[in-house]
Write a structure and sequence with these properties.
The complex is a heterodimer of chains A (62) and B (549). Chain A is mostly helical and 62 residues long. Chain A has one domain. Chain A has two helices and no strands. Chain B is mainly alpha-helical and 549 residues long. Chain B has two domains: 367 residues, Sodium/glucose cotransporter, CATH 1.20.1730; 108 residues, no CATH class. Chain B is built from 19 helices and five strands. In chain B, the strands form two sheets. A three-stranded mixed sheet of chain B has the order 4-3-5. Chain B is globular, with a radius of gyration of 23 Å. Classes of the chains: A mainly alpha (62), B mainly alpha (549). At the A-B interface, α1 and α2 of A face α1, α8 and α13 of B.
Chain lengths: 62, 549
Amino acid sequence: MLDLRLPSGLFFAITGILLMVYGVVDPSRAPLTAANVNLYAGSAMTAFGLILLLLARRGSKA
Amino acid sequence: MKLATIDYAILILYFSFVIGIGWKLKASVTTAGDFLTAGHKVPLWITSLAFLAANLGAQEVVGMCASGAKYGIMTAHFYWIGAVPAMLFVGVFMMPFYYGSRARSVPEYLKMRFDEKTRGLNAVAFAIMTLFSSGISMYALGRMFQLVLGWSFDASVILSAVIVLVYTYLGGLRSAIYNEVLQFFLIVIGFSPLSILAVQRAGGWSGLQHKLPDVMTHTWKYIGASNQNPMGVEAFGLFAGLGFVLSFGYWCTDFLVVQRAMAAENMSDARRTPLLAAFPKMIMPFIVIVPGIAALALTKSGGGYSLPMKGNGYDYDQALTTLMAQFYPSGMLGVGLTALMASFMSGMAGNVTAFNTVFTYDIYQGYIRPKASDTHYLMVGRITTVVGIALSIATAYLATQFNNIMDFLQLIFGFVNAPLFATFLLGMFWKRTTGHGAFFGLLTGTGAAAATYGLTLAEDKGGWITNLHSFPSTMAQNFWIAIAAWSVCFIVTIAVSMATTPKADSELRGLVYGLTDVPHETGVNWYQRPVPLALVVCASLVVLNLLFL
């Protein structure tokens, strides 16, 4: 049966990378913060996605 | 709010994944049991997150943010006094009976424990309530996206309905559960940055304390009297109404959440499901309530952000979306909106799958065609999915005609869930309770709720019989309606049970305390056993309450 960690990990990894790239490429910021939200949130998301994928891979080997 | 291409891309990516998961699960759904109860094969980590997520609809996310702005951190009581203790109770004390009885739904448990008429009453009430809930989720989604993005109400409703229909038709309950977990991750990831950014801008927690009246940053300090806090509640009403009856009534008897625990692989996992869910539940206030408080602080101190106005007061329901517009750039904004869309859809899917199971097993198999084949019920389940979604859409349009339908639904929940909790307490822990007792207890309890509503007034609501007492807020009124309903049901159930014959002990095995074996787990670490887990959660609750006293 489908291991949910696989599609979840994939979704967050892809979205995270999309955000990170956008954060690097796009200079505009949100009105009330100078922080590069896309970059930070994107990296956290990508990390989370990769962890899920790793867990899924370990799960399927065991 | 304007969306950029990347925002749409993220939304579309999410929709494809959600449908893709449904598609992938289609192969593993071969029996009615698979479709309607996930075949008891769902791993613990998924059942516990789904247990939490099924309840975490957008009304909660948007509503808690709004309540944070309106009432302050006191709103956390809904979690720390309300939901979490109830989740502990259902996991430790009630799951053995739910799971051990092998009932496929809450009404079915009532039939086994009591009789057909009690089951029928609950099945019909639940079916109507849950469809209404689903429709209201759709309505709220349509309204929100119309207001915030200018999308057509019809398009949003139909689009979301079609997507939910596709993945629940393909994979049934399993699909709904898997997608709920994905939605939970998305909600945490989508809204945590908002909390962090808004609070940072307001100067941290101490900044919030300085910018706002003291009552907004304390949970217990102002609970002595109802005129001391903006919620208009005092300690007893809070404890008994919210803490006991309303929360326990919901988390312990509402099939929407109980269904997710019942889908676990064994009884221990079923018991642990609500307990594990309690951990993330405890920190939800920091994700959903705190941004609302920050929004108010920023408005009061001229931090560049202001809550929008509605009439003479703030439009609290818009707190979350206006915060997103100010703190999220394009990209993250897409994630935030997708998280919002996800939470609406998870509410819809959860309600439709619960409706499915109750209709197919309790109403159709119970009263319409009891002896058909499994394949037949699988087909009925699938058709019911389509019909359920169609009826939800109809309810969504009905809601456009009445502007306080959401309040109406809240009220109905109080009418139905509060007495039901008394019925379950007596049913599960006192073997003398009889079917007649349960049935009449439920009826009179609901009647008492209606009477309390009719005899009291709060913010112009209620009082259709006459006004005996005015409450300072609708919340206080709701608490007391729940207390009245529960108490009347409790007393009447006992009285009628004493006057009627109970079932023999042999018929009650596995259904009642004293006649059920709760297996003691061996070979499991102490921290994995239900009771120690529950105690850890309790200790954490005490710490949290002390921190924000």
